[in-house]
């Protein structure tokens, strides 16, 4: 093309640029929503619900939510729930995390999921199934240098689905206090 022909080509107007930018934003939003659906994860709860969950969490969990992180990693046979203190030198917080998760493991083994119900509501996804099937879920507690973890193991597909739905609901409800961890090797 000659420089004469190039100079006669109309340049994109401001409206065209804005339309392209708007279209790009729509595509990005759709990709984010599809990514949540493809991963089988719930999108984050709204800020009001997350604030309510954090407030109820402070009543149930003895450690500081602002100084710790929950991670929920799914596996093909269950999953791993990890709570770590953001600054491991805070041994008081580490002790509170360990105390809480150790007690929760004992309650969960008996089918007592009252604490998650108090925080997230009785209709929390997966909760009813976990209560009913607790005897068929192995729950192992382990201390970490900066907190503790619970490993969940089940051979039942329905309980596995319930456990994964329960993990997703916790990440959604806890917002910045929780995250999906990398998939771990199956516990076992």
UniProtKB/TrEMBL annotation:
UniProt keyword terms in alphabetical order: Membrane, Transmembrane, Transmembrane helix
Residue spans crossing the bilayer: 15-34
Name of protein: Aspartate carbamoyltransferase
Lineage, highest ranks first: Bacteria, Bacillati, Actinomycetota, Actinomycetes, Micromonosporales
